[in-house]
Amino acid sequence: MKHRTGFTLVELMIAVFIFGYIAASLSTIYSTSHSYLFQNYRNNIIKTGVLLSMRAIQNNLPAATRVDAPAAGAAGSVLAFAVNVDKVTSCYPVNSLATTSWHYFCLANDASTPGYRSLYYHTGTLAGGTPCGSAAATIWNGAYPVPTCGAALAGQTVTKLMQYADTSAGYVFSRRASEGIDDNGSVRVLLRSRWDAAARGMGRIQRNVDFNMNTVIRSNSPQ
Question: Which one, of 185, 182, 174, 184, lies nearest residue 214 by Cα?
Answer without folding.
Answer: 174
